Every structure is written in C-alpha cells, then in structure tokens.
Amino acid sequence: MSEAVYGEEVMGRITHGMLRLSTAMRSQAWGWAEGAGLTPTQGEILVLLMQRKTALRLGEIARQTALTAATTSDAVSTLESKGLIEKRRAVDDGRALAVKLTGKGRTAAKRAALWPNFLQSAAASLPIEEQGVLYRSLLKMIRELEVKTHIPAHRMCLSCEHFEPLGEAGKDGKAARKTTRKARAVAPLHHCNALNIDYSDTGVRLDCAAWELGSEATQKKNWKIFIQPA
Question: Which CATH code is given to the segment(s) 3-112?
C-alpha cells in the first residue's frame, strides 16, 4: 500500500508504521490463539484477569478491553465452558456476578501473555536511550487516547496520587531535570510513595496494583513535569 494513502508528512508515516505493527500483532495473536483453541479476545480477557488477581464483573472486563457487552458475554461464556474461568458473586454486591481464573485458566493466561514477546525482542534491539524515548512517546500517546476516550484509562503512575516525578521530592530535583536523555532511561528520577521505590522513565508503570487515582491537579502537575524534554 502506498504511503500516499496516509500522507507524505511525518504524521502519515508514523500512522503507516503503526499500522504495520498492528498487522504483525494481529498475525501473532491469531497464530497463538489458533494453537490454544481460543480467540485473541478470549486470551486478552484471561491476561486481564491474571493481571488484576481478583474477580471482575463483566462490565469492568468490557470497559478495560474496550469490547461491547455482547462480545464480552460471549467470550466469557466460552471461557467458562472450557473450564478456564468460573463465576462467583461479587464481593461488593452479592446480587452481581464476577468471574475469576481457574487453575487451568491461570496456566492458559500465562501462555497468552507470551505471544507479544516478538515485540519485546524488536524493542530490545534499540539502544537503551532509544528505548526510553520510545516508551515516553508511547505513554504520551496513550494519555492522549485516554483523554479522547478512544481507549480506557490505565492504572498508570502518571495519574496516581503516590507518584512524584523527576526527583521532585528530593534535594536533587533541579539536577534531575538536567539529566541527559540516556540517564532518564536508567536513572532513578521518579519516586512512588506507596511502594517507596525510585525508578527511571522506563520504570513508569502502565498498570499497578498500588494505584490510586490522583486529583485533577496532581495529574496535571505530574504530566507537566514528565513531558519536559531531557
């Protein structure tokens, strides 16, 4: 397909490049799914349940995977029939049902989480500073898509009450802001008050069990500081 379809400017080329990545992802996902006797959607639900380590209602699964209620219900029913998940009463509402992994489902979820390894291998071929720049760029794009409600919000550090960016709480905060691009990818610039750990840009989490939604002011402050160039 000609790049002219998406335009000759850099935005068109980026779009074209990301579409090529999506082609590879679709191919790899279906390759794994056919071998496992599942669909990529069913595998995604298994991985979500494994990540959350708790029973989830169908509505929450649909929200997190950006699926319709009907598609979610069909996928969950199939997974239940295969003995990979089980339904139980929700902890916070005995009238509602939630689903959780069975032992067999946990094994399947671990395998489902492996098919994207080809992306990890490709990213690992980049120099460490380029990995950091790529991840920062992805976080910014994900944030933009969240704001425009194209994808569900993530439990990421940058929207968390416990996150302190770029050494803000430490005495070396000004020095941290002057770190090189390479240093930002490896240096412990940020701090988590919940877990009491320091980490670099590449350590910023997209999904964290300790996450608590920060105030609007906290989120704006976090993003304003984080997006500062190295």
Answer: 1.10.10.10
The CA distance from 31 to 9, in Å, is 34
| 45 contact partners, CB below 8 Å, separation of at least 6 | 61, 65, 72, 75, 76, 79, 85
Helix (H) or strand (E) holding 142: helix 128-147
The three-class DSSP label of residue 114 is coil
Using an 8 Å Cβ cutoff, are 75 and 39 in contact?
Answer: yes
- Taking the C-alpha atoms of residue 80 and residue 30, their distance in angstroms, rounded to an integer, is 20
| pLDDT of the residue at 171 | 42
The three-state secondary structure class of 165 is coil
Q: What is the pTM of this model?
A: 0.80
- Residues 1-11 as b/e (b if ≥16 CB within 10 A, e otherwise) read eeeeebeeeee
Express each pLDDT in 165-178 by its tens digit: 876 544 444 434 44
Tell me how far apart the alpha carbons of residues 126 and 123 are, in angstroms, rounded to a whole number: 6
CA dist., res. 76 & res. 41, Å (int): 10
In the block, which residue shows the tokens 């990529």? Answer: 40
C-alpha triplet 37, 40, 41: angle, nearest 5°: 110
Long-range contacts of 25-28 (CB under 8 A, 24+ apart): 25/116, 25/119, 28/115, 28/116, 28/118
Partners of 160 in the β-ladder: 213
The structural domains of the chain, with segments of one domain joined by +, span: 3-112, 127-226
Instruction: Please tell me the distance from the alpha carbon of residue 22 to that of residue 20, in angstroms, as a whole number.
Output: 5
Which tokens in the block code for residue 73? 């219900």
